[in-house]
Amino acid sequence: MKFVAVMLVRSISLSSLLFAGINSATASVTSSGDSVITQNYVIDVAQSTISYNPGGISFDPNGGSTNPSASTYNVSGIFTVNFDHYSWSNPSDWMHFTNSMIIANGLPSGFELPKFESQMISSTQFSGNDGACSGPGYANISCSGPQLAGSISNVSGQIEDGKILFNGYQPNALGAYGGGYTYTIVASAVPLPAAFWLFASALGFFGIRTKTK
Q1: Whole-prediction pTM
Q2: What are the two backbone dihedrals, phi and then psi, of residue 181, each rounded to the nearest 5 degrees?
């Protein structure tokens, strides 16, 4: 029992060293023995935007064509990042977004933070997409096929000094014609309770009061 506990502590310590750019993270160990580190973030609405382009091509009476213009929206919200270390994968260090609550007033529905795994290409930088052969365990000889047909989602960014900054693209049904969401998000790391109360405050929850005698 003592030996198992020591091994788990070592696993957590190695992961903490690996993700040196992550502040105030919570470490845990999965049932497979691989390590997972989670960190909660609150989006900085002043620095974060999402641009939406419906996509498609319009033709005028003279036969000319134009593409629809994009509209840009400020975005707020919270999300969690899971930093994963898979001993069975090469490369073995990845991250992905979970538990996201995104608000961008006026933005057409359909946007969400990417759920695919992105590779940690250094202790502070990551990059990923949802194309073929892009996830954990797939970077090997048995997976050398082409990308999936059509547009793919992608994201890249960095984590440093308690902040995360990333840029990405998520196609819509007309992604092949320029349609989709292009975003830049800056967020600060906070403990989960603090993240909830900050977000609740932004939504105006504290403006709701009950009558008192």
Answers
A1: 0.72
A2: -115, 130
